[in-house]
Amino acid sequence: MIRLSNLLDQDHVVRRALGGSLRAGDVRRFFAEVMVAAMNADGHVDQRELAVLERIMDEHELFCALPPHVTAQLRRSAVDAFEFNPDIHARVPVIARNLLSRSHRLFAMAMACEVVAADNDVAASELAYLSSLREGLMLGEREYAALVDAAGKGCTMAAAERLSRTIVRLIGPLIDVCMVRNLLARSHTDSGLVSIISNLPDMAMHRHGIAEQLARVPGDVASWSVSATLARAAGALPTPADRYWLSVFSLAVDHVRGATGQRAPHFGQTLGYALAVDRRAMTRAVDHARAIARRIVGD
Q1: How many angstroms separate the CA atoms of 284 and 280, rounded?
Q2: N or C end: fewer C-beta atoms under 10 angstroms in the chain?
Q3: Residues 100-121 pLDDT 10s
Q4: d(Cα 250, Cα 104) in Å, to the nearest integer?
């Protein structure tokens, strides 16, 4: 067994010098924490699991540009979080609140899967952690299965990258929902919509496609049926995870546009019902959307 303290540089002078070199909300803190939790999910740390963590932090583009002392700080903060609260399931909501983008969540899940698979002996407690993490990150069962399968082949990062690109399937339904929102607000303008959607997590690289999709919206939007349009959006995204993300992005656009008053919560209820997103998931979607909107407006 490897003690957690042995993962770290014992030089306290170095540790003090590292303080403040990373922002509190840097997503890499939570990637490191996910891996440390995965290593400890079965009650002990295996050398092969540690080797996977070190390889990812040495080679993956998310980490490899960091100076060694910053990488050490990431590991220290992850271990500190675990030692402060060894209940790895209790930390999942905190991790989810700090990983707002779908791609970041996919990469976090991929890292956890690869660490767990490293010792070729997956314990029930490790599977329970992965399941808890999947649910907390609101990832689909197919996405999870693909990452677990890729972990057995040592290619989870490539699988996460492929899955992250499937976000494009949300663009059309998202624009339709935004048009419906305009109808409900008695406004028929799409002014600024391309910019807002492009600022959503994972969408920046698809700005051209967003503009093209919006340009194809028919001119008779005022005659659209709200229920029929929302039903079409739901039908285009059959998985609960995709409908969750559509809800998040739609509500984030609403918040960025400054929707207030009675119509704002009413729209969320209408959306949740039409997309068959249950109340618990919709509550999380609302919080998730607000956090995204705060980051966009703040930026």
Answers
A1: 7
A2: C
A3: 999 999 999 999 999 999 988 8
A4: 19
